[in-house]
Automatic annotation (TrEMBL):
It catalyses: (sulfur carrier)-H + L-cysteine = (sulfur carrier)-SH + L-alanine. This is Cysteine desulfurase. Keywords: Pyridoxal phosphate, Transferase. Its cofactor is pyridoxal 5'-phosphate. Residues 26-394 form the Aminotransferase class V domain. The lineage of its organism: Bacteria, Pseudomonadati, Bacteroidota, Chitinophagia, Chitinophagales. Pfam families: Aminotran_5. GO terms for molecular function: cysteine desulfurase activity; pyridoxal phosphate binding. Its EC number is 2.8.1.7.
C-alpha cells in the first residue's frame, strides 16, 4: 500500500518534471535540500508581487499585511512542532540557531572545566560552534560514541552525565546514516541530572512528527529548506524560561525595547533574538511549506517513507558489491553506502549521467566518516515525492556503475 496520490503530489513540484542528461530526473538528495511545491513558490511570489514591505515598523497597509503574514508563519511553524508562537525564534537556519544557543552559553553559562556533550554522528554545524565555545572557555567537548551499526552508545552516554555538563546537544536523525536517535531517553536522562538538551532537528522535521512540549526538550533547531520550504530561514525553538535567560545574540533594530547611548533594554523573546530586517518572504514560504505538509499529514508521510526506506534497503542489498554504512534499527531519510572499492564520487558521477541525483562525500560529518574508516559515502535521501520507481532506477544505476567501473 503505497502513498495513493504520489503522482498528484509529484505534479505539485515543477522541478521534478524534467530530464537530466537525457533521463527523467530522480531526485534523491533530499537530505541536502528538498524541492518546493507550487504552494510555496506561489506564496512567495504573492508576497513580492502584492505586499512586499518591511515588518514591525510601518503604520501603512502593506507593512501591516507583511507583518501579519510574517507572524502568521511563526504561528504555523509553532503549531507544527507543538510550541507556543513566542517560543519560536526565526533564524537563518539550523546552523544559525545552534550558533545562537552556543554563543549564549559561551557568554553566560560555560566556565573553565565545564563539559558539553555532543555525539559522534553530528553535522559540523553541531560540532564547531560548541568547539569554539569550549576552546574559549577552557571547557571540554565530550562525544557520545557511535556503535558499529550506527547507533548511539547509550551506556556510554549514561556514564558521561556528570555535574560539570552544561548542555547536551545531539541530532535527532543522522543526515548521513539515517539513524533515529532515542531522543526521549536522551532528554529524560539529561534532565534527571539537571542538564538542558538541544536537539538538531534539521533532518527530523520532514520525516517525523515533532511535539516539543511532550518531549520536554529545552532547545530545538531546524531549517525550512529541509521541509519543502525556502533556504535562508529556520527556527530556534526555546523553552520560554531559557529564552528569557539567554543573552541577545546580535544587536540591531527590532530586538530592542529602548536604546540610549548609556543602556539598551531588549524586546521580549522571540524578537530579542531577531535583530535587523528578517527574511520576510522566506518566513512566509516556510509557513506555506508547513501548511502543505500539515495538509498531507506528517504521520502519513512518515508511514509512506518508512515503506520506501525498507524497500530501498532490501533492493540495494541485492547488489553484492554494495555495503551499507549504518544499519540502525530505527531509521529515516538517508541511506549511505559504498560500492566495492570505488570512490563514492565516481559512483555519484555515473549516477548523475543517468539522471539520478545523490550526494557523495562526507556530508559535513567528517568525524563520523573517520569512525567508519571511509573517505565518504554515496547517500540516497528520500522525500515524500519519491517512489519505488525512483528506487528501482537507483538500483539499476548502481548496477550499471559497478559494470562500468569494473
Ligand atoms: N544538522 C543536520 C543534521 C543537517 O542535516 C544539516 C543540513 N545538512 C544541518 C544541521 C545544517 O543545516 P543548515 O545548513 O540548513 O543550517
Amino acid at each position: 500500500t503505497i502513498w495513493p496520490d504520489v503522482e498528484k503530489i509529484r505534479n505539485e513540484f515543477p522541478i521534478l518534471q524534467q530530464s537530466i542528461n537525457g533521463n527523467p530526473l530522480v531526485y534523491l538528495d533530499n537530505g541536502a535540500t528538498t524541492q518546493k511545491p507550487v504552494q510555496v513558490i506561489r506564496a512567495m511570489q504573492e508576497y513580492y508581487t502584492g505586499y512586499n514591505s518591511n515588518v514591525h515598523r510601518g503604520v501603512h497597509t502593506l507593512s501591516q499585511k507583511a507583518t501579519s503574514a510574517y507572524e502568521a508563519a511563526r504561528h504555523q511553524v509553532a503549531a507544527f512542532i507543538g510550541a507556543h508562537h513566542h517560543e519560536v525564534v526565526f533564524t537563518k537556519g539550523t546552523t544559525d540557531a545552534i550558533n545562537l544557543v552556543a554563543a549564549g552559553f559561551r557568554k553566560e553559562f560555560l566556565h573553565e572545566g565545564d563539559e558539553v556533550i555532543i555525539s559522534g554522528m553530528e553535522h559540523h554545524s553541531n560540532i564547531v560552534p560548541w568547539q569554539l565555545a569550549c576552546e574559549e572557555k577552557k571547557a571540554h567537548l565530550k562525544v557520545i560514541p557511535v556503535t558499529d551499526n550506527g547507533e548511539l552508545d547509550m551506556n556510554a552516554y549514561a556514564s558521561m552525565l556528570g555535574p560539570r555538563v552544561k548542555i547536551v546537544s545531539v541530532t535527532w536523525i543522522s543526515n548521513t546514516l539515517g539513524t533515529i536517535n532515542p531522543v526521549k531517553d536522551i532528554i529524560n536522562m539529561a534532565h534527571a541530572a539537571g542538564i538542558p538538551v538541544l536537539l538538531d532537528a534539521a533532518q527530523a522535521i520532514a520525516h517525523t512528527p515533532i511535539k516539543v512540549h511532550e518531549l520536554n526538550v529545552d532547545f530545538l533547531a531546524l531549517s525550512s529548506h529541509k521541509v519543502y520550504g525556502p533556504t535562508g530561514i529556520g527556527i530556534l525553538y526555546g523553552k520560554e524560561s531559557w529564552l528569557q535567560k539567554l543573552p541577545p545574540y546580535q544587536g540591531g533594530g527590532d530586538m530592542i525595547k529602548h536604546v540610549t547611548f548609556e543602556k539598551t533594554t531588549y524586546a521580549e523573546p522571540p524578537l530579542k533574538f531577531e535583530a535587523g530586517t528578517p527574511a520576510i518572504c522566506e518566513a512566509i514560504g516556510f509557513g506555506a511549506a508547513v501548511a502543505y505538509v500539515t495538509q498531507l499529514g506528517i504521520h502519513k508521510i512518515q508511514a509512506y517513507e518508512h515503506q520506501l526506506t525498507e524497500y530501498a534497503i532490501a533492493q540495494l542489498k541485492t547488489i553484492p558489491e554494495l555495503r551499507l554504512i549504518g544499519e540502525a534499527k530505527h531509521r529515516a531519510g538517508a541511506i549511505s553506502f559504498l560500492v566495492g572499492q570505488h570512490h563514492p564520487s565516481d559512483v555519484g558521477v555515473l549516477l548523475d549521467q543517468q539522471g539520478i541525483a545523490v550526494r557523495t562525500g562526507h556530508h559535513c560529518t567528517q568525524p563520523l566518516m573517520d569512525r567508519f574508516e571511509c573517505p565518504g559515502t554515496v547517500r540516497a535521501s528520500l522525500a515524500l515525492y519519491n517512489t519505488t520507481a525512483d528506487i528501482d532506477r537507483l538500483v539499476e544505476g548502481v548496477r550499471k556503475a559497478v559494470t562500468l567501473l569494473g
